[in-house]
């Protein structure tokens, strides 16, 4: 019985392994105003040896637009900025446990309002929010908070948008394209977005 338990536990842990590798050009079905802003080479994320997703980040960030909002890791990035595109190959869940299906999604920059609803969620307020790529075709757009959240709810099919937490990474420990585990449940992807070293939580679970 003990041996069976150890084997089962080992298999469960292995199934939660995430790795990364390089991938080619962005998907051809993207609108030109979106694909034209992306890097020519993306990054592939594998889970348990199978492709989970592919991500193409923005090559250059737009002109800075400083804000007086607090607790942001990227305060000069305008709200709603297109930050990348994600192609999902199998069922995926964000840190809230919301599942979204395979498909093509945009990743836009946003931050939650300081209204007390998200206390303790994270030290920083900014994140990348998913929207269906076929409905988000203007790479130069900067949608406001409410319409962006409503668009993302079409991904989650819940009252909450689908998001990935991000934070600016310390250049001293930054490893571009590297995936590593943090704590008991979170998996982090280190990647430069427009030259800025950023950590993106690609998998995990939030307790708040």
List keywords for this structure.
208 residues; mainly beta; two-stranded antiparallel ribbon; 3 helices; 14% helix; 35% strand
User: How much helix is in the residues?
Assistant: 10-25%
Structural class: mainly beta
Unreliable spans are: 1-14, 115-121
Biggest sheet features: 10 strands, antiparallel
How many helix segments?
3
Task: Describe, in plain words, how this protein is organized in 3D.
By secondary structure, the protein is mainly beta. The chain has one domain. The protein contains 3 helices and 12 strands. A 10-stranded antiparallel beta sheet has the order 1-2-3-4-7-8-9-12-11-10, with helices on one face. A hairpin with a 5-residue loop joins strand 5 and strand 6.
Topology, please?
Layout: H1 2-14, E1 18-23, H2 32-35, E2 42-47, E3 50-57, E4 82-88, E5 92-93, E6 99-100, E7 103-111, E8 126-132, H3 145-156, E9 163-168, E10 179-182, E11 186-193, E12 196-203
Antiparallel strand pairs: 1-2, 2-3, 3-4, 4-7, 5-6, 7-8, 8-9, 9-12, 10-11, 11-12
Please sum up the structure shown.
The chain contains three helices and twelve strands. The protein is mostly beta strands.
């Amino acid at each position: 019985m003990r041996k069976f338990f150890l084997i089962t536990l080992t298999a469960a842990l292995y199934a939660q392994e995430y790795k990364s590798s390089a991938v080619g050009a962005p998907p051809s079905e993207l609108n030109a105003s979106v694909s034209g802003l992306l890097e020519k080479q993306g990054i592939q994320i594998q889970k348990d040896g199978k492709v989970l997703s592919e991500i193409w980040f923005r090559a250059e960030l737009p002109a800075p637009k400083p804000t007086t909002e607090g607790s942001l890791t990227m305060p000069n990035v305008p709200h709603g900025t297109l930050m990348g595109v994600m192609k999902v190959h199998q069922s995926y869940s964000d840190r809230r446990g919301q599942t979204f299906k395979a498909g093509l999604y945009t990743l836009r920059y946003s931050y939650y309002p300081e209204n007390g609803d998200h206390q303790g969620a994270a030290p920083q307020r900014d994140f990348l929010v998913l929207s269906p790529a076929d409905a988000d075709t203007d790479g130069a757009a900067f949608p406001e908070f409410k319409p962006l959240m409503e668009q993302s709810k079409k991904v989650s099919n819940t009252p909450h948008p689908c998001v990935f937490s991000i934070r600016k990474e310390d250049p001293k420990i930054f490893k571009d394209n590297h995936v590593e585990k943090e704590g008991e449940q979170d998996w982090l992807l280190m990647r430069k977005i427009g030259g800025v070293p950023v950590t993106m939580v690609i998998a995990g679970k939030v307790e708040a």
